[in-house]
Amino acid sequence: MPRKIDRRWFSLLVAAVVAVALVPVFAVQDERPTRRPQPNGQPRFERAPDTQPAGPTRVLILTGQNNHDWERTTPLIIGILEDAGDRFDIDTSTSPAGGADDAGWADWRPRFSDYDVVVSDYNGQMWPAEVRDAFEAYIDGGGKALILHAANNAFTGWTEYEQMVGLLWRNADFGDRLYVDAEGDIVRVEPGQGPGAGHGPQYDWPITHREDHPIFEGLPTTWMHARDELYHGQRGPAEDMTLLATAYSTTGGTGVHEPMIWTIPYGDGTVMTFLPGHLWRGQRETDAFRCVGYRTLLQRSCEWLATGEVTVPVPDDFPTAEERSVVPE
Who contacts 52 (Cβ-Cβ below 8 Å, separation ≥6)? Predict the structure, then answer.
């Protein structure tokens, strides 16, 4: 006759075997590295959640090519951030000149992961694949980017960039359009319907904030922005988009509230698009960059992206809904 196994000993034996088998699994999970490979082979840049940078916010400004006057806009942006006191530590990375070949681009490799916020004042040649992969990995891993004015015109065909920016300077067939109607509701227009990207002449126009957001703390609901282009008809996927501010497009425009400032999450990171801030080559007036509202929002946006908080105060001369306010040249 076969021997019967005592059930108590059998239960103890099974429990011991299971315990031994599980130990290696939990050890591997606990010891996984924080930099995980991406499908394209680019390491995933990890940023610890809910942490603030020690010391000044580290800002990298990308520049070097633009259909606008980047040789003046980039110094103006630097000056605006420097006017916020000791909050920002600013570096620039200047791309090769337009038309550069592969050899000319070989040494341009911005170290995105060294910075809390990357500000793009760039609209030119497509970046090399290695740079594009690094930028995607930086944002996906928790990095932050601020896309200024014509930087939303850039990189047609770079799908991930178009996804993280959401609305771009594209034709009417490219993607959806968003605007805010007279009742304050967001309207989504399908591709091929309505206008594509454009703008009327430069003039003073009001900006209205649409969200209870830290960058608007203490600001009026609407203020007058100084002479600038007002983009309309921007197109794109516009997915997971938080619309922060709009501008009413009148002169040469659409007669509706067009998106001006918005955020989109990408992986663990955030991309904010900030459309005001036009300056052509040969254009004398710099009113848009001297606008107190523009300057305040640019400083606050960089600080919020890096820290989740805003300490930049509201200037006494912040514009009202009726009157613009600019600093001296």
Answer: 306, 307, 308, 309
Cα distances (angstroms) measured from residue 33 to each of 40, 46, 142, 282: 18, 10, 16, 51
Q: Tell me, what CATH number does 261's domain have?
A: 3.40.50.880
Residue indicated by tokens 């009157």: 323
Chunked in runs of 10, what are the mean pLDDT values of the chain (329 residues)?
38 39 30 32 38 80 95 97 98 96 96 98 98 98 97 98 98 97 97 96 97 97 98 98 97 96 98 96 94 98 98 98 97
Domain assignment present for 274: yes
Range of the domain at 283: 57-307
Report the number of distinct structural domains present in the chain.
1
In a domain, 13, yes or no: no
Residues 153-164 as b/e (b if ≥16 CB within 10 A, e otherwise) read bbbeebeebbbb
Angle at 23 between CA 17 and CA 29, to 5 degrees: 145
